[in-house]
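Re: weekly structure request thread

Next one in the queue (253 aa):
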Amino acid sequence: MITITTSNNKNVYFASDQHLGAPTPKESMPREKKFVAWLDEIKKDAEAIFLLGDLFDFWFEYKTVVPKGFIRVLGKLAELRDAGIPIYFFVGNHDLWMTDYFQKELNIPVYHKPQEFIINNKKFFIGHGDGLGPRDIGYKRMKKVFTFPLFKWMFRWLHPDLGVKLGQYMSVKNKMISGEEDFKFLGAENEWLVQYCKKKLQENHYDYFVFGHRHLPLEIELAENSMYVNLGDWINYFTFAEFDKNRLILKEY
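Done, posted below.
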């Protein structure tokens, strides 16, 4: 478990679901520039930054090749890390094929499962949010296929020009990947991530559960001193969360 203690006038930031590259690189460019501008703005007071997945709408790492593009956001992340700001990346359902590129090139750790953090003595449970809880059944089946070693080995044998093009098409068009219900609020009692969080609370106390994936900015009280926060996205809402000493607040950029 990683412990973070913020310095004076420093904050911890959370963002997710930028889906850069969708629906086309040209159309996503303004969103990429806006996200980079936000990263540049928070550089002055960021103690740490958490990126909770789906930064890219499609990402696959061959042994010597990664998808073309995204130079602005990758360059900005490198700048922030070189400035000494810790960045923690959690893969989402669109960039779950990450391996070691971020670690080697950017010195950014990559997590494939939710993790616990202690930030200013508050206990956080953090992840992308896909495949958790009682629903998301279709995606859970699809994820098993996509993460199966034989499938990844076979996909790597496709020429990158074909493999990346196919992956981008599937990512934009296939509802099994994109998540048909990601954009609809189901009511707090029906939200499967809320149900998941409440079950986790039976085992341990967490002050905050922070997820992405749902594409909705949500703040839902689970119990006394326990809150579920969903970060929204950088497609429709341009929302992020800021933890200033002892309180997590959703904000819009």
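Residues 25-42 form the longest helix (18 residues). The chain has one domain: 8-252.
Next request, please.
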